[in-house]
Amino acid sequence: MSAPSGAGKTTLGRSLLEREAGLQHSISYTTRAMRSAEQDGVDYHFVSREDFQRMIDKGEFVEWARVHDNYYGTCLADIERLCSQGHDVLLDIDVQGAEQLRARGLDAVFIFIVPPDMEVLHQRLQKRDTDPPEVIATRVKNARQEMQQASRYDYIVINDKLDEAVQTMHAIIKAEHSRAQRVMPKVRRLGV
Ligand code: 5GP
Questions:
Q1: Domain assignment of residue 4, yes or no
Q2: Three-class SS of 31-88
Q3: Which atom of ligand 1 approaches the CA of 92 most closely?
Q4: Those residues with Cβ within 8 angstroms of residue 49's Cβ, 6 or more apart along the chain or in another chain
Q5: Could you tell me which residues come within 8 angstroms of residue 144 by beta carbon, excluding any fewer than 6 positions away?
Q6: Does the chain have fewer CB atoms within 10 Å around its N or its C terminus?
Q7: What's the predicted TM-score (pTM) here?
Q8: 185 is in which domain, residue-wise?
Q9: Is residue 24 part of a domain?
Q10: What residue's CA is closest to ligand 1, atom 21?
């Protein structure tokens, strides 16, 4: 899933993980500084720029991108391990990362989260109270650019009321499990 900053993606992701027993979050690697409420190995694996570069060189990322002056990446081995354990894997990645996954042709479902309107997005960014006004202005500008990518996704979820958005995400996951191409291997095992 991708969303512009302030669309409520983190809260939505957390609620979804609580609701979906089979869903696991892939913990990304990042070079950004840890925020006070965050934990290393829980929210992100916080690594140095050098360690991140080493992982790029070794081809350990299935995708990586520079976002807001920091680097973020998804470790291929992590998602392979979770998938082999039978989990669905939730990736919280930016539009550049999603584009890389699309290019790789992975069996992935791309969901874009949007705020109900730009005013709500602005308010959510202000309420966070962590960023100065000029940073908020940049984030709103970036959000507009990122939202132009929404049509490249399989689904767009409007995050107006959290409960409804979580239900919609749940419905998408359910429906995707029933996609013929995913179920056919099971049908074939029935000897059809
Ligand atoms: P934040 O620093 O606020 O946690 O995240 C900033 C942005 O980085 C968000 O848009 C988030 O989706 C994106 N991001 C987080 N992890 C990854 C990742 O592993 N890969 C990519 N491409 N983007 C990520």
A1: no
A2: CCCCCCCCCECCCEEECCHHHHHHHHHCCCEEEEEEECCEEEEEEHHHHHHHHHCCCE
A3: 12
A4: 31, 71
A5: 4, 118
A6: C
A7: 0.93
A8: 9-189
A9: yes
A10: 93
Residue 80 Cα to ligand 1 midpoint, Å, equals: 20
- As beta bridge partners, residue 73 has 29, 64
Pocket of ligand 1 (CB under 6 A): 28, 32, 63, 65, 67-68, 72-74, 92-94, 96-97
C-alpha 122/C-alpha 63 separation (Å) is 29
> Is 1 among the domain residues?
no
CA distances from 180 to 13, 98, 187, 188 (A): 26, 24, 9, 12
For the chain, the domain total comes to 1
| Distances in whole angstroms, Cα of residue 35 to Cα of each of 32, 39, 65, 130, 170 | 9, 8, 20, 10, 29
Give yes or no for residue 144 having a pLDDT over 80.
yes
91 domain-assigned: yes
